[in-house]
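Submission checklist for the structure archive. All mandatory fields must be present; incomplete records are returned to the submitter.

[x] Identifier: DUF4292 domain-containing protein
[x] Organism: Dyadobacter sediminis
[x] Residue count: 282
[x] Sequence attached
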Amino acid sequence: MSNKISIWFVAIGFLWLTSCHKQRSSTSVIQIVATDSVAVDSLPANPDSSVAAIDSAETNAAVKVNEIQFDYLVAKSKFSFKSKTQDFDNTNVNIRIKKDSVIWISVTGVGFEVARGLITPDSIIFMDKFHKDYFVFSYEQLSKQYNFNLNFALLQSVIIGNMPFPQPADAPFVKQNDFYVLKQMVERLEVDNFIGENNLKLSRLKATEVPTQNTFILDYEDFREVQGFLFPFTSIINLNVKSQKDQQVNQTDMRIRHSKVDLVRESPGFPFSVPSGYKRKR
């Protein structure tokens, strides 16, 4: 899995998987308190099918993409994940974000919380409340493990539907049917940003890694108005990565659907502390 943009959704999937993990390892104690004053089988088999052939190559330099501005975000969501080895559907996830500072996620089972995660610009921590384990990752560790540069700003951009990579002031857009398309080269990624002509929102992002040709496609759907901004209530992710062992292409499908999203000015709170009896797994 070597794509920058997918890590936020993989992180949610990982948080759920840790709550199902049964192994044990070394012990440690950590205290962290952060406070602040769909069914998968219905995912599209071919994500590119929604984009028709290019009608024109008109260059448009003056396209202003509609971005979401906020202080805090609170969302109730359902997350689905399907890969060759894992398949779960409509997991309940609560999300809280302080812009540029904290992403807090809570996974609930039948009437109780099974896992919690805290993502900051410095680290990513997951706590498995069912098995009493916790995991701590630095961005450097994950970047080496998945062979890409990971950062907090990227994770935040993916969940809120803003462009994950900055738009140059003089960036030329190419008109393709109902989209304005901005092409970017970000390290080893060829990135196509599809901006909807009718709402000027990021509607699709396709990233292809060079030279592996691994692909990541993110589609935003079901735009609704939230405090004056258009917010995508559904995100569909398709990741195709070639195995280095057998050269087979492994497909992973993910989807997150929000049932409620609020942009608020006051902190909703980000409670996170690991009890002394929990075991550190990593």
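[x] Structure attached
Curator remark: The radius of gyration is 19 Å. The longest helix spans residues 7-18.
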